[in-house]
Specification:
The protein is mainly β. It is 0% helix and 48% strand. It contains no helices and eleven strands. The protein has strands spanning 3-7, 10-12, 18-25, 34-39, 45-51, 57-59, 67-72, 77-82, 91-97, 109-110, 114-118. The N and C termini lie far apart (40 Å).
């Protein structure tokens, strides 16, 4: 059974940092491109970042320079290091396998997400 399980979300003040994790199982994690997608209340999903199978990384303009995506294939885990957080980063963050793209229909597997709230 394929599983993607996110963790690491929480409440953080503006300017703070969080590191999200996505633990994968049930498929050959290292062979898949992986994405982070977020959805804020009342809004549609927004592609955030991606890392391909050869560690090429991609970022949305809104997070470039503040977020860093990485992966540890030995641990079957995807990460998103978030710094200089802003209130507009508040959303549910989900990981998903698929080509680095906002074409969500192309994604194979999705996690259920972890809530990130940026507020003072």
């Amino acid at each position: 059974e394929v599983q993607l399980v996110e963790s690491g979300g929480g409440l953080v003040q503006p300017g703070g940092s969080l590191r999200l994790s996505c633990a994968a199982s049930g498929f050959t994690f290292g062979s898949y491109d992986m994405n982070w997608v977020r959805q804020a209340p009342g809004k549609g999903p927004e592609w955030v970042s991606a890392i391909n199978s050869v560690d090429g990384t991609f970022y949305a303009d809104s997070v470039k320079g503040r977020f860093t995506i990485s992966r540890d294939n030995a641990k079957n885990t995807l990460y998103l290091q978030m710094t200089s957080l802003k209130s507009e980063d508040t959303a549910v963050y989900s990981c998903a396998s698929g080509p680095p793209s906002s074409r969500f229909v192309m994604y194979d597997y999705w996690g259920h997400g972890t809530q990130v709230t940026v507020s003072s």
